[in-house]
Backbone:
């Protein structure tokens, strides 16, 4: 079933952050918005329609080659030979999305957006897919919500999956809790929790086309107590989970629109950007709010000319900076229709020299477990007084246990005395900052967990 598929594809997909720079393995060029580009990198991605949508290959659960052909409106799977057990996780989740997914953001989405924002009610999405009569797969939307307006990392609010079609003996995470009629069709409703709520809507008859208002499925999830209005929508995704095969599957068209009457007016430019509280690894930024004819949904933080993240307030702390280094910052406002303002004034900051005292700690938590295994999350925290650039965590797995999947760290071996080393994107931690990595392990019986966690840093 796809219980593990949902968990592992989301967490391991953080490698899409790395893919944002590596991106294209087989293509004449790796520039944004190219059509008819072939992506064969496991976690490669590119953008279409001037960056409005991101297309990702995302072969998170297999080591076989998968390639997708990216067009100006979607993609198709041209090479794939997955052969995964249907009671386990699929091989991949090739998809196109709108919003932010592990710090890889499409442009002009206006996401994250709090569900209490009136503009949320106007978000509509549509997809047209090419399905296949062979293999084992599902065709599904994946809509992510988080209690905070985060643009990176694992969302911990709710994941709403909408299965348009499926072929083979597969099922969503958790168990079926009811049925509902939405958008002129009947849907099975499934629910499970794997560290966040997973609410799946499985259409009782397959279709290759779906158009709906995002609030329709979200409102049903809220009414069942599985989601909250205070949470933030971070991304809307559409693609496939293949277990066996499957070339020929494809997204022909995909769109997300505001449905708000064609708002083309950008917000006013933020003013009075100022920096304060500069340390060796962080700085506080604040600015005066912008105005908009409909409403400002967030502010892009621009560091050295590139957007790094989006926040909803008029202040933020930027961390993970390098000691004794000059940085230039600016901000810009955005609205729900994706309109962006001009850049604010620029402030230049020189971080302070670093001081000695690097160190780290590692803390284990278990968000999900079952008879034959469990999922482990390990939080690494910089306990020293200076920024660290690389961390290493060692621990011991109980006898008979084996790591079957892992994310956000390089982990080896898969049993016994294990060493986990930071990735290129999460090794740098400012004092008191933290990051997480995790793994899935199988175990023959009992509830034994890893022991002897130690963390070293440099």
Residues:
């Amino acid at each position: 079933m796809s219980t593990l598929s949902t968990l592992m594809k989301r967490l391991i997909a953080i490698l899409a952050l790395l893919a944002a720079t590596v991106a294209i393995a087989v293509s004449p060029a790796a520039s944004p918005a190219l059509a008819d580009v072939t992506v064969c990198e496991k976690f490669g991605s590119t953008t279409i329609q001037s960056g409005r949508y991101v297309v990702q290959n995302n072969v998170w659960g297999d080591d076989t080659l998968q390639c997708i052909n990216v067009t100006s409106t979607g993609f198709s799977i041209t090479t794939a030979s997955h052969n995964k057990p249907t009671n386990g996780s699929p091989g991949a989740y090739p998809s196109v999305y709108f919003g932010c997914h592990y710090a890889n953001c499409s442009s002009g989405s206006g996401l994250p957006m709090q569900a209490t924002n009136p503009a949320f009610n106007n978000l509509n999405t549509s997809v047209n897919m090419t399905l296949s009569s062979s293999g084992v797969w599902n065709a599904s939307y994946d809509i992510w919500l988080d209690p905070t307006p985060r643009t990176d990392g694992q969302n911990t609010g709710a994941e709403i999956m909408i299965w348009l079609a499926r072929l083979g003996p597969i099922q969503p995470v958790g168990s079926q809790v009811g049925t509902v009629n939405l958008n002129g069709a009947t849907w099975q409703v499934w629910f499970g929790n794997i560290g966040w709520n997973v609410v799946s809507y499985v259409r009782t008859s397959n279709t290759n086309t779906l158009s709906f208002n995002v609030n329709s499925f979200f409102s049903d999830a809220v009414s069942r107590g599985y989601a909250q209005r205070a949470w933030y929508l971070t991304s809307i995704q559409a693609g496939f989970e293949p277990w066996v095969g499957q070339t020929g599957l494809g997204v022909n068209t995909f769109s997300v629109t505001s449905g708000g009457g064609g708002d083309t007016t950008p917000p006013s430019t933020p003013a009075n950007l100022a920096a304060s509280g500069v340390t060796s690894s962080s700085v506080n930024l604040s600015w005066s709010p912008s105005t908009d004819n409909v409403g400002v949904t967030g502010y892009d933080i621009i560091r050295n000319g590139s957007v790094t993240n989006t926040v909803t307030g008029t202040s933020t702390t930027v961390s993970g900076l390098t000691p004794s280094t000059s940085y230039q910052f600016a901000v810009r406002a955005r609205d729900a229709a994706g309109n962006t303002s001009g850049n604010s004034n620029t402030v230049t900051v020189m971080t302070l020299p670093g001081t000695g005292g690097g160190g780290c700690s590692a803390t284990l938590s278990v968000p999900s477990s079952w008879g034959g295994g469990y999922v482990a999350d390990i939080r690494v925290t910089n306990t020293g007084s200076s920024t660290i650039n690389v961390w290493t965590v060692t621990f011991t797995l109980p006898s008979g246990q084996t790591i079957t999947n892992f994310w956000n760290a390089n982990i080896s071996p898969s049993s016994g005395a294990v060493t986990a080393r930071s990735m290129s994107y999460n090794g740098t931690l400012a004092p008191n900052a933290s990051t997480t990595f995790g793994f899935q392990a199988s175990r023959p019986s009992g509830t034994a967990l890893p022991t002897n966690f130690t963390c070293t840093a440099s």
About this structure: The helical segments are 3-12, 16-22, 214-223. The CA atoms of residues 72 and 261 lie 25 Å apart.
